[in-house]
Sequence to fold (85 residues):
Amino acid sequence: MNKYKKEQRLNFQLLGDFNKTASAAFDVLDDTLPAFRMREVSKRAAFVIDKASIIQYAEIAPHPAISLILKHIANSSSISIVKKR
Fold:
C-alpha cells in the first residue's frame, strides 16, 4: 500500500483492511465469488470521512476513481488530511 501511496503522491493515510473489519462495518463484503471458492471478498471501495466522522464521499466500484476522490478532498474545508507520524 505504501508503494501505491507514493506513486499516487497521496498525503493522507490509507486503510489496509486485512481482517475485513472495516469492510464489514461499511457493508462492502461481497459473497458472489463461489466459482473461485472465495467467501467475503472486500469490494473495491473508497470513503472520505471528515473530522466529525461523517462520510463525505463514498464509492463502491471495481476501481474507485482516485482523481474524483482527490478532487473532493481538495474542495472540502471539513476534510482533515491525516499525516503519518
User: Anything to note?
Assistant: The helical segments are 2-7, 21-25, 66-74. The radius of gyration is 14 Å. The domain at 2-74 is CATH 3.40.30.10 (Glutaredoxin).
